[in-house]
Amino acid sequence: MHRLAERYVNVFGGSRELVPRLSSFRPSLGGAGARKFLVVVLLLSLALIALVGPPLILPFGISDVSFSGNRFQPMTSNPSFELNDGTWAINKSKGGVVYVAEGKSSSGSRSLYINDGSNLTFVYYNSSQTGRIPLNSSIVFGFDMLYKGRSNGTDVSSFQAILVISWKGLNSVPLTIAVGDFSSPPEVNLSASTFDGVTPLGGIIMIRAVPKDQQWHSYELQLNTQRVRKLVSTFLGLFNISVAADDELFLTAIVLHPVNMEGYIDDVGAFNVEPSVASVTVSKPTLLPAPWFVSGLWVNGTSVDFGSSWGPFSDTFTFRVEIPLAMGLDFRIAVQTVGGQRTQVDAYVTEAPVWI
Asked: Which of 345, 346, 337, 292 is nearest to 56 (CA)?
């Protein structure tokens, strides 16, 4: 507290004047307290530098990328042959063996067993149960197959799924997926003839070799991609029919056509595919949340929105994958910090259906 001292002095013949005087005042911190305060400030500063400094100057790492599987919602009935409801009509050749087998399946308890050395067996989907299906970017056609081999050992062997795609409900285009014992690489052909050596219908023919490991494999084809639309447009152009980019396409029929093959077919039909989720493990040089120091996540050169979950040594970033996953699909994933450091990896899908 300040103290005022009064002092009376004589000035010029004895007059008196009151002169205030401030006593000396000095704040005081004990020596030990001052040292403790400085130590605390220093330690807090060092901790802040340790937490904030490295992520501003060091790159983050990407140690793992994984994908959740797509969920497939059937658009056609009884894809797994589990029901005896007349969905599939079997018209087999003389001597051909085709029936719904119990206890052998890729997902349930039944599948379609085929052992036919001819090319005269057809299995028709009763489309009256679902009607024509308008195609959009999330619609795929898919099937599972366990291929055992050729039935007669000499002729070409394949399983063919023939899809009838309708343009505006006016013109139909046969699209044949042929998966079998081929030596050639995957290819796509267009044929306006009535017989082209693979299918008696002509149209669009997609050929792919089957693995010889006698295991279940899944196959799928997106039905409303620019690739498929261009093939439909080119085929109809052979008949002087012009298709606009925004014209509607419909799936109107499915026919299964085994050719000299033995094997099992399951989960066959049209499906609506829900997006999957990719999880990216991002290692970081800080205990603080990684998104505080990340300016963006890029997938195949495009910035994407992402969620995150914290971990002491690494965080997990998640983002939606809108396209159906396929075996071998490549995602180039990059993470960039606010300090300008960029880390990039290529991630490949290893467990998913084979794209046709």
From this structure: 337
